[in-house]
Design brief:
6-stranded mixed sheet; elongated; alpha/beta; 8 helices; 26 strands; binds adenosine monophosphate; Molybdopterin biosynthesis moea protein, domain 2; Molybdopterin biosynthesis moeA protein, domain 3; 452 residues; binds magnesium ion
Length: 452
């Protein structure tokens, strides 16, 4: 586990007052590690979890060479270019049963999709490419409609016995669940679920249910953060709105560090804040305060909260024998919790979460594939952009009549304007060195589908 100072020393040109988005990602990659505890869960519970062990195939899928079509199986060497081929049908092979007889020269076997290919046969002609002379038990294959090897599936084509079917670090998607089941396996070994605690700070922030008050706003960040975390499949711990009092902040950070692997706060991290949030983060942990060259979301605090006198439960051996043991209230690993101190503005919270926190949490979940690929879309409008910072504009991505992706910005791009985020189905990512965008220019887009 590296300290903030150690990581900072490793990064070229590290300046906490002027970090690029790329430097932030590089920093976080060095800061976070996957949880160590694992558990074995039933296949249904595996959805959305991260594999903690390779799934090694105990069998080959498919287990035999088999037919990909309903038709007739034959030895393909008999096919001659430019000539039809007539063969005698000697029997029928059904799916799920091996055919017992032999098929000689000048013969073929009626075969169903999925049926085992008998020894010596290597090619299947689909039924519709053949003609049958009435009742004489022969079929004729027209000239040049078939090549040797056509319509045969090989044993182990999907998976070979002893091979790695799914690697450690893979997120279990619906397809992955199906693959596990196709191997006859009922359980998977996954990392324990990550636990993330979050709270909002700021004296002007109202909890739902409180009457409106001049100068105060309702807390929206806890709800967006809740949604973002839940979609990621982590266990959430909601610590509410914490007022700007040292004792309350300290209690919240201690509680969070004890129970959670990561803590997400919003508000109170910009310079010149009159509040105690920054002070408490510094006091209870090893924390860096950054100004990131990005928009929205400039201020951010990152580090590890490890209050003195802090004692988390020791891990002993495999963390969980059963699925329920991670429900205990203290997390198993020691070492405090990773802090993501996000800015207060509602759009900045979502953008910094998507750009930095989400990939870091995925890494902590054990995933080896944290960042979804950006797509390219054509901007239908001019976008003003200063080189020297990364900008995330809220965008609406659509398919143009010619099938290409196009994107336009949604509404007021102010960092507090959540409606622009609601209308958007993606973020237009304008990179650090990029300048103004002209209509028709291609831009990178992070689409929300599959992400949030
Ligand atoms: P700060 O980063 O604390 O200076 O906050 C920046 C802006 O975000 C201020 O206008 C805050 O009122 C607003 N803000 C902070 N926290 C929240 C929250 N939880 N929900 C909605 N708005 C917030
Ligand atoms: Mg504030």
């Amino acid at each position: 586990m590296k300290t903030i100072a150690q990581i900072a020393a490793e990064l070229q040109g590290y300046d906490p007052q002027a970090l690029s988005a790329e430097q932030v990602s590089a920093f976080l990659e060095r800061l976070v590690q996957p949880v160590t505890a694992t558990e074995e869960v039933g296949i249904f519970e595996g959805l959305g979890r991260v594999l903690a062990r390779d799934v090694v195939s105990p069998l080959s899928v498919p287990p035999h060479d088999n037919s990909a079509m309903d038709g007739y199986a034959l030895a393909g060497a008999q096919l001659v270019a430019g000539q039809p081929l007539t063969l005698r049908v000697v029997g029928t092979a059904l799916a799920g049963k091996a055919w017992a007889g032999t098929v000689g020269a000048g013969e073929c076997l009626k075969i169903m999709t999925g049926a085992i290919m008998p020894a010596g046969l290597d090619t299947v002609v689909p039924q519709e490419f053949t003609t049958t002379a009435a009742a004489d038990g022969h079929i004729t294959i027209a000239a040049d409609v078939l090549r040797l090897g056509d319509n045969r599936r090989f044993k182990g084509e999907d998976l070979m016995e002893g091979g790695v079917a799914l690697a450690k670090g893979e997120l279990l998607t619906p397809a992955a669940l199906g693959l596990v089941a196709s191997l006859g396996l009922k359980t998977v070994t996954v990392y324990r679920r990550l636990r993330v605690a979050y709270f909002s700070t700021g004296d002007e922030i109202l909890s739902l249910g409180e009457p409106p008050r001049e100068g105060a706003v309702y807390d929206s960040n806890r709800y967006t953060v809740f949604g973002l975390l839940t979609r990621l499949g982590v266990e959430v711990i909601d610590l509410g709105v914490v007022r700007d009092e040292p004792a309350l902040l300290e209690a919240a950070f201690r509680d969070a560090a004890q129970r959670a692997d990561a803590i997400i706060t919003s508000g109170g991290v910009s310079v010149g804040e009159a509040d105690h949030t920054r002070h408490m983060m510094k006091q209870l942990g090893d924390v860096a305060f950054w100004r990131i060259a990005m928009r929205p979301g400039r201020p951010m605090a990152v580090g590890r909260i490890t209050p003195s006198g802090f004692q988390a439960k020791e891990v002993s051996g495999a963390y969980a024998e059963s699925a329920s043991s991670y429900q205990k209230d203290t997390k198993p690993e020691t070492g405090g919790a990773i802090l993501f101190g996000l800015p207060g503005n509602p759009v900045a919270v979502m953008v910094t979460f998507l750009a930095f926190v989400r990939p870091a949490l995925l890494r902590m979940m054990g995933s080896t594939r944290p960042a979804p690929p950006l797509l390219r879309a054509v901007s239908t409008e001019a976008i003003r952009k200063k080189p020297g910072r990364t900008e995330y504009q809220r965008g609406s991505v659509t398919t143009a009549p010619d099938g290409t992706l196009q994107v336009c910005t949604t509404g007021n791009q102010g960092s507090g304007v959540l409606s622009s985020m609601v209308q958007a189905n993606g973020l237009i990512v304008l990179h650090h060195g990029q300048g103004n965008v002209a209509p028709g220019d291609a831009v990178d887009v992070m689409v929300f589908e599959g992400v949030i």
